[in-house]
Amino acid sequence: MTSVKQNVQSGLIWHWLFIGQLRAFPFRYIFAALSIAIGIALGFSVHLINASASDAFGDAVRNLSGSSDAQVAGATNLGFDEQLYPRIYRLAEVADVSPVIEMSAIFGGTGERVKLIGIDPFRAAAITPTLLGRQDNSGEQSAGRTGGQTAFPINAVHLSDAAFTLSKAKAGELLKIRANGATHEFQVAGDLPGIEAGQAVAVIDIAAAQWRFDRLGVLDRLDIKRAENSTQSSLARALEKMLPSDARLSGAENEIKKRTSLSRAYRVNLEMLALVALVTGGFLVYSAQSLSAQTRQQQFALLRILGLQKNSLQRQLLLEGLALGLVGSVLGIILGYMSAYLILTIVGSDLGGGYFSGTPGPIDVTITAVFVFLGLGILTAMSGSFSPGRRAARLHPAQAIKASTGSLQNTEHPAWLPGILLLLIAGFLVWLPAIDGLPIFGYLAVAAVLAGAIWLTPWLARTLLTPLTGIVRRSVAFDLALHHILRSPAQAAAALGGIVASVGLMIAMVIMVSSFRTSVDNWLESILSADLYVSGGFVETSFDPDQQKQISQLPGIAVVEFSKTMNISLDPGRPPVNLIIRPVQSSNYRLSLIDTTKQDIAGIPIWISEPAARIYDLQVDQNIRLPISARGTSVYVAGIWSDYARQQGALVMESEDYDKLTGDFERSELAISLQDPENIDAETERLKRQIGNVAGSDPEISNAAGIRNIALRLFDRSFAITYGLEAVAILIGMVGVGATFAAQVGTRIKEFGMLRHIGFGRRKIIAMLAYEGMLLGLVGLAAGVASGLAISQILVHVINPQSFNLTMNTSIPYIVLLGISAALLVTSGLTAIFAGRRAAATDALRAVKEDW
Predict the structure, then answer these.
(1) Of the candidates 228, 265, 271, 314, which has an alpha carbon nearest to the alpha carbon of residue 40?
(2) DSSP assigned state of 404
(3) Using one digit for the tens of pLDDT, what is the confidence trace for 524-551?
(4) Is the dihedral of CA 827, 829, 835, 838 positive or negative?
(5) What one-character-per-residue DSSP string does 126-142 give?
(6) What is the pTM (predicted TM-score) of this model?
(7) Which backbone phi and psi does 573 adopt, to 5 degrees?
């Protein structure tokens, strides 16, 4: 007895119990560990993919910025006056300055997009040497690019390796490049060895860029090298004092920060969705450990009698949870790395968000990330083991050792107060603001709703099913199934924890996506009022006043209106917003207004999008200053409109006001109402040729229905990863509830044997279990639907507005919800039947023999 007590009191007993249980019920623990592994794999792979894309973007920005200590960039696409260049160069804090012209361009032969940069090679050599070209001296019309660095002839262009691939040009050939509404030929002089792989860049002389592409007198950027006797802060102060309103102090790190901040909410939400499967896995661990505690209650009672303390017994189940979490997390990290590698290799790094569509960088696995996800998996598994361990520790040894396996049931009415308190906490959390742009309290509210719903599952089972006991029935199998569930609500909670979590989150996501899609569809229908929309494609095509007049006079056009979109920086620390120049009150352009001014205010009005209003905390009638000119322009907010296309925000200004402020009468987009809209296909082809002849390039023409279909396809693509993650979560839940129900059936072999002895046939036992499965599915469905509806409102009205600055109306897809409900009920019933066949096949005499 002394040696037994020593083993009990030592740490050796825990692995005997765990290994024995693992050998007896291997699939129960395999499913639990796999669920943890899948959750960690999804979260880790999404993290690695997003990190790879962010790192690649950062490397690209740093590569193009070279060794500059600071940058001055234009606040809009119009750039700034080039006279700022010599003024900054004369500052004592400045050692050197390199002027830059930067435009979006396309190759004339292939139509592929490229970044066109104009530099002064003598200035760039000291600050951005990566932009210097290498002359091709081979004399061959081939892609072999060797030689030394050179200054630029006026018609020369140097291409990065990616640009060579996109243009399909060879050294020495003439290449057409279109930018800023003009097309010119350049001779391919060589390559850009300093540009990293995957970056499509073409570099020309800055004089050629200004002259040929109508940028005379303006610059887009100044790369600045700090003087040795100055500091970074003194340089920044000196620059800020002399910058006009249409120029901004910038830098590589600032640009990286702005882009990553724009995508951060998307990345965090995606990782949260990926970890939904991990939450479901935690409930499967809870189910497995609850059943394990029930099947071992006599073993635990004996150990308690032999000297095992309550805290040691609880620690036993926590250590088992730690082992499950460790195995699952390690496997998940390996699977996550493999998944990230395959996705980056085959699909790319975008994941549907559209933030990082370029070539991804290498996968960089940090020790911090590995330990964070390892800790999440272990913590989840141990959390799932805490409650079963606590219940096992409270078990009275004398009662447990006399009872048969799993016969001790909690017949008291389940506690409901903790569940209600969790729901009240969730109701409080939804009113709290975002933290640094992230809906942290919204996520906590979702967790509180889930925890409250699962806590209330036993109470809900009794509340929903107790009224059925008073109904007169003829089915003994149904009576037995009903009374078993009412007699053991804790077992119901163990079976339904995972399914309530996965179904609740699935329903919430279905409602959220449906609400988002319906809102986008209604928004598109309200703003797409013209028959045809014309744009320059990948790059801005400029229509000057003469071309606009020619297009207006083309036959078949009833009304044509011109517009222009440009970037404008309201805050150097935030991504630029879109400034849209167009007629505001017209038949072809509409705004879906949320709020509008009630006053008659003198000044220049603008209409801001809802994201812009939220990001910059703007309200109707408020005055702001736009960096359109060197001195800036004061305007007031005349209205706020819905916009689901521009997360960073957008402003709309009347064409006449913009023309007076800037003297820029060129436009890049058209909205056309046809005289014969019934013959829209033929009219589209004819106008495409005629407008192309006027503009000197092939424009893109789309009708309203086509734009709407493309937008919705892009929407569905962006949420495809969401659907996939949620499908995995609910699949884990379905498999888990099957494994849990099968394990519960395994603990009731004696009960089935006794029923067989008193004349209850196999078919009736199977029918009884099918009824149990259907009833449990009904309870799980009720809890899942209720929690899903609550969580969907948190997603729609809290998390999405705080993450993406968008509001929407709730739209419930009833047919989809009915399909999910039917699938859950059928799956629950079939799972119970399959589990019951094996139990019913057990020999009746062997099933009821005594164990002691």
Answers:
(1) 271
(2) P
(3) 888 888 888 887 544 456 788 888 899 8
(4) negative
(5) HH-GGG--EE--S-SSS
(6) 0.76
(7) -90, 0
